[in-house]
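W.,

You were right to be curious about this one. When I first looked at the sequence I had no strong expectations either way, so I just let the prediction run and decided to look at it fresh. Below is the sequence, 346 residues in total, followed by the output.
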Amino acid sequence: MAFDGLLLVVIWADVEPDTAEINGLRRDKFQRTLTWRGIEQGVPTVREALGAFRDDDGGRPKVTWCLQADEDIDLATGRPDYIFSQFESIWDKVRQGGDEIGWHPHLLKYSQQRQGWIHEVEDRLWVKEMLTQTWSEVKRHGVRASRQGMDYADQEIIGLLEEFGLAVDGTAQPGVYRPAGGGSHVFKIFGNLVRGGRMKTLDIDWRGAPERPYHPSADDFRQPGKMNLLEVPQTMVLTRHPLTKSRYLAPWNILFNQPGLETRLHRLMGAGSPAVLSGYFHPTNAYDLLAKGAGFKQGLTLAVGSRFLGIGLRHLEKHMASVLAVRKRYNYKVKFVTASELKKYF
């Protein structure tokens, strides 16, 4: 069969410890207790659900699992690459199934003055040393891809990723600008719940970034240039908050209710081939799955969150059906790829 174009689909996952709504533990302590239901239950269940679908080459959806490794994890566990090593059997299995493992660092630094974790960007020496030291541990795990925590990057960070020899990064969110502490009052309250007391101190600014994958410039990380690193922007989808009914742009997320996906796919098909659909999720957002087996309080929190915030595993099938419908609607070949496999095309 002759196709009119190609749609490359890349799914990222930010793999982190369980959040406060899952385990009821605050995250603002200097050395905190961590739990891992999102990894132990969320990762295999999401993979199993994705395994029901096939692209036009008969391939299953692939996931680039980006594991948190940074000072936060180091202080809590004794090593920054704890998630890589502690759950090695899980990562070996997903690799055998065609997935890949990436790196997901957060710029989290404990502030004695504020008695809490902050997202540090002012102390540039600390940022460079933390990322460099963490990378010295992470690189032995065969990592080629990364996604930066809280969707934040700047010129120095992108330069470091290039220096480290990473092939691809998936942090960019074209057109997005979120100043520190920004967002509606409802968003601030919910965001504080999810962060368990962590303080939002970052300006997220991706204005001017292209919507298609690009090699960043050494002068402006949001503009195309000649770096070897490939920046893969998230596909921004018009999303409607189920409670407030307000509309906002959010990255494509297979665990979120996003009725604007089909409209976004229509735009992608008109932007040339190969088109790229790129999005990420957190295994801890499988609220409907994780509500089962949780204690009463956490189970209720997760069930209510899943129902009224439109978050859960139940949305995955609809997302995949919309993506695979592209072959009939636009005569485009659909191909699932890992993030680093995109280097073959860009």
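Here's what jumped out at me. The first helix runs from residue 20 to 23. And, maybe more interesting for your project: The first strand starts at residue 5 and ends at 15.

Coffee later to discuss?

I.
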